[in-house]
Amino acid sequence: MAETAIEEGETNKEMEVAPALIAVHPLEKSVAVAAGAELRVFDLEGDSPVSLLDDSGGPLHADSIRAIRFGAKGRLFASAGDDKLVKIWTTDSWRCLHTVCSEKRVSAVAISNDGLFVCFADKFGVVWVVSLDGEEGNQPLVNKKAAPILAHYCSIITSLEFSPDGRFIISADRDFKIRVTIFPKKPFKGAHEIQSFCLGHTEFVSCLAFPCTPDYSQGFLLSGGGDSTVRLWDMTSGSLLHTCEVGVQAELVESNGDEVCHPAVTAICTFPVGSLIAVAIQSLHGVMLLNCDLSSRILSVAKVVSMGDIFIATSLGVSSAGRLWMITGASNILGPNFTSLARVKVLAGFQMSSNPESSENEPVMLEDTDIPGGEKVLEKLQGSLLSAKEEKALAAATEAVKMAMRNLLIKKQYSEDRRELRKKSRNDRKLKQ
Amino acid sequence: MSQNNRPDPKMNKSTHLPRKRFYRARAHSNPLSDSHFPVPITPSHVDYSLHYPHFFPSNDVISTHQATSSGVHSKKIQFADIGCGFGGLLVNLATLFPETLMIGMELRDKVTEYVRERILALRKANLGQYQNISVVRTNSMKYIPNFFEKGQLSKMFFLFPDPHFKEKNHRRRVISPHLLDEYAYTLEVGGIIYTITDVEELGEWMKACLEGHPLFEAITEEELKADPIVSLLISATEEGQKVARNGGQTFQAVYRRIAVSEEE
Questions:
Q1: Which residues of B touch A169 (CB under 8 A)?
Q2: Positions of the WD repeats (chain A) (predicted)?
Q3: Strand partners, A67
């Protein structure tokens, strides 16, 4: 039995599939996609694909990219992943300003709202900070030194965010925890003061987002997790305000025999205006829209936008133009020779005025030719326009992403017998015999 | 040894306390491995009626989290012995602070089992006493926030922890700069953290971690002398007694949780 365990471990290694990611410039000036190790950017404002400039030589990223994001003002962009590199780009010229080396694989990245700091989290649960001040992009500094500021004890950090007011840095992990830490003025000395822990998820936490609150003081937090729920928190106190069982509501929770499979929430996106939230769920062909009522503190399902049977979004991006950008796909699912697959779709027509009286727009799916920039945007971001056969392969890709995520973040359950058996085969016991 | 007809041979015949030889465990346990014990989702899910039936008569209808929020049972655990081992300190503190709820946290299942039996036996033999101590098997390096709210604890004990000599394994040490953030979160301002070890290198490490942390300050010599708990760190713990028996040295660091200084 021990042998089968080892074999399982090896196949898991091959199954290390990274989901395709998407990030949209806050003013929709550009869109970025990460598929495997490849970073693709399209300049929507200039209507042209972007060639990234990196003076460090060699490939931009040598392994799967795990996190991409624009800064709050859209001036900066960061990418990081399994090659243990964090690259910080200026979006004016798309030149790499810094390449930061991490000791471990990077699982999440965040840019402070003032653009002065970049924080990243590694797979051992440590959050690091790098400072960007004093440089206007003239002198790219390779190998900037990062300092550790906080840690989740030996847990994979799945998501990292600065609160909209910049007071807190929020980190979520696979041990069901969300930690809200005060982001200090001098972060290089460490972020020691924990504001709260948001506890309530019963599986790994996968994503964090902030509802937009023009009339409410800041302090609300949204999270999604492996337990198929989206939760609303008061992050100042850490109290759970409401739980929306999105998996149950979309009838996605399957039980085969005694094992209940909860599809994980993989992404949450909030819009700059309005109460709608977009949620991506594994095995949901489309995207779920929730209504987030902050006065009564209730999350409710507004609508499920269905997208045929080949589109399970792996990542979401949103812009001030009221469009939701979605991507599905994965890195080398069929081995290293196979190129990554990605498919981008856009949902448009989200209400972008704060006036609730304005006519209620229904979000509509855009045809490929109607998305901003047209088909050449897809050609850049997807790598190519997919053939029908490749579209079919996407289903396999999302299934592989789902398996990889489960293997990475869900604790393996062994039966009592098996644990005893493994204890017996411990090395120190063997020597005695 | 001698098989008699007593129902439980694991208990000492005269004292009715559990016999350690039936609860032997390895001295070390890997805090990094994924564990298989249940963990409370939040501190309000900690079942106080299970740990302290004397203080929390089990009213099945009133689940503890409703009870605590409505203020019926406002009593909360205040002392935590992290890595309590065989529970020597808890047993001594139980009678010294009879109205304070305390919990021992231990990673090794057999050792936890021993302490549980020991407490039950003590409660039986001394009616009305030892009702304020309990033990739980958990990995306190991972799950402290699941057991205690912000500022809930007034004292935390880290007595004779695993030294983890190899540099590679320093991240397994129970006192580390990053874990101190979590301990500071759990301790009330003014709360005290007690550490002691017989390993000089670890003693220096723990002291350096506490000294370098902005939320802790060292306690003065006079205060240490006035604190009745300090002498118990050696005399009450099984590890401390062992060190004393062998004439070994100990290295302690006792620090107070302070409020954040605003000028930074």
A1: none
A2: 61-99, 198-243
A3: A80
Tokens describing residue A275:
């109460």
CA-nearest residue of chain B to A195? Answer: B185
Domain co-membership, A256 together with A398? yes
pLDDT at site A269: 94
Number of domains in chain A: 2
Q: Which residues of A touch B260 (CB under 8 A)?
A: 193
pLDDT of residue A430: 55
Is the domain of A300 the same as that of A191? no
ipTM of the complex in this document:
0.87
Range of A395's domain?
202-351+361-427
- Residue A141: both structure tokens together: 């500094």
- Indicate which residue of B60, B162, B198, B227 is catalytic: B162
What are the residue ranges spanned by the domains of chain B? 37-257
**Average pLDDT rounded to a whole number, residues A378-396:** 81
Question: Which residue of chain B comes nearest to A237, CA vs CA?
Answer: B150
Q: Which of residues 110-139 of A touch B (CB under 8 A)?
A: 124, 126
Judged by CB atoms closer than 8 Å, whether chains meet at A153 and B141 is answered as yes
> Domain B37-257 is of which CATH architecture?
3-Layer(aba) Sandwich (3.40)
Contact A199 B41 (CB under 8 A): yes
Domain shared by A281 and A367, yes or no: yes
Question: How does DSSP assign chain B, residue by residue?
Answer: ----S-S-TTB-TTT-PBPGGGG---S---TTSPP-S---SSGGGS-HHHH-TTTS---TTS-HHHHHHHTSS---EEEEEET-TT-HHHHHHHHHSTTSEEEEEES-HHHHHHHHHHHHHHHHHSTTSSTTEEEEE--HHHHHHHH--TT-EEEEEEES-----SGGGGGG-SS-HHHHHHHHHHEEEEEEEEEEES-HHHHHHHHHHHHH-TTEEEPPHHHHHH-HHHHHHHHTSHHHHHHHHTT---EEEEEEE-PPPTT-
Whether A58 and A147 share a structural domain: yes
Q: Which of B105, B142, B170 to mutate to test the interface with A (most CBs of A within 10 A)?
A: B142
The answer to whether residue B198 is catalytic is: no
In a domain, A249, yes or no: yes
Element (H, E) at A394: helix A388-409
Nearest to B41 among A148, A190, A202 (CB): A202
Residues of chain B with pLDDT under 50: 1-4, 61-72, 263-264
User: What string of DSSP letters covers A36-59?
Assistant: TTEEEEEETTTTEEPPPB-TT-S-
Q: Is A154 on the interface with B (CB under 8 A)?
A: yes
Q: Is A12 a member of any domain?
A: no
Rg, Å, chain A Cα set: 21
Question: Rounded distance, CA A148 to CA A187, Å?
Answer: 9
Q: Please report which confidence band the pLDDT of residue A158 belongs to, taking 50, 70 and 90 as the band edges.
A: very high
Question: Which of B10, B24, B6, B54 has the alpha carbon at shortest distance from B238?
Answer: B24
Q: Establish if A385 touches chain B: CB-CB under 8 angstroms.
A: no
Instruction: Return the structure tokens found at A300.
Output: 């409710």
